[in-house]
Amino acid sequence: MNKKLVALFSILFFVVIVLAACGGESEDAGSEEGNDDGSSEETVTLTLAENHPEDYPTTVGDKEFARLVEEKTDGRYEVEVYSGGQLGEEAEVLEQVQLGTIELARVNAIPLTEFSESIGVLSMPYLFEDEEAKWEKLNGEVGQELLGTLDGSGLVGLTFYDSGQRSFYNSVRPVETPEDMEGLQLRVQSSDLAISIVEALGASATPMEYGEVYSALQTGVIDGAENNFPSYYTSNHYEVAEYFTVNGYQGTPEVLLGSQELWDTLSDEDKEAFREAAMESVEVQREAWAELTEESRQAVEENGNELIEVEDTEAWREAVQPVYDEFGDQYSEWIDRLTE
Fold this sequence. Notes:
about 350 residues; 5-stranded mixed beta sheet; 4-stranded mixed beta sheet; alpha/beta; about 45% helix
């Protein structure tokens, strides 16, 4: 009896050994199939955080970027876009990207000044002669070098997205010249540069949270504010501030970026694919922005708001010279390179 049991156990042990060997061979064969370099074809899914709605121009750009990444890497990477602030506000998202818990994000350039002082140059008033000159620089070598100033922060800048041109609007009177700004109380973002610009133009600056602007305009706490056409319309500020001065004094762009942790895992070939995808998505994003701007403008005009077109901005540029006197040294190198 004992001999029979021993024989049976021996047979079972042999079968287990054979199966294990076959399984190992199967795994090895599977890892060798696929790419020529022996790597697995398993798709890596990445997360991209976006705080604007699903149909917003930056989200449109994100999705085009995601499509191109998958295409250019033959499906080895796919990007899932989480819009509407599902993953947090910009400050929270930036922290998570630095930690590598979120691989990609789209944020405005302004909060990035915490990690690269140089990027603040993009908020200077009347920095570019026109939009064509602006995007020639941002999409070119200088733009990439400016994004490169994020090195060492845990963030990798990929490309710039359009967020339009900001202009002034108010509830008191039409503003055609800098002199017309005299005495107006305008809401600004809480930054020294924003305050300096408004005060250089003769108005009084009131830092205030964006969500408080509508009621402040409605009750007369402030006379006006500044923003782009889509924001002016979608925030309903056009209902309580009927005069919109189209002078495009500032155009701080958005930035598409990745985490350094992700970047360090990519091959040189894949890094190039990601950069190409980012750059090629800009055209789609800017087209979506132009469409939204035109739709917003038409809606405002149909409401009966008065749009004051400023064709010659020379007087405005001269008026903000004190801003360049105050901040020029800080940004002198980049101002020269972006405007040469």
